[in-house]
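Q: Convert this sequence to structure tokens.
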Amino acid sequence: TRARSGKLDIDEVHEGTFTLTNNGSFGSLIQTPIIVPDQVAILSLEAITKRVVAVDDVIAIRKRAYLPLTYDHRAVDGAEASQFLVDLKNVIENADFSAEFGTEAA
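A:
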């Protein structure tokens, strides 16, 4: 793509405030993304892997992924950033994506 080959024009990459990056598509389990100049935050989507978790006091295997968020404390309050991640987690965990992916809900 043009972005990967470094062929984007400056008009295509400035004035952004939030970046969403998909490092998980390369198999990354967790990274700490760095904010580019003039942006406020970046959220990294990491690889989905099976992990051992406790569900109602029973050991189970569930799909999990890290969602690291890096943000500029001059623009974003830490409590609000944490609440954003909690809300995002709840949306993802409680959503039924079967229609979008053509599969049964997991």
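The beta strands are 18-21, 41-44, 49-55, 58-64, 69-71.
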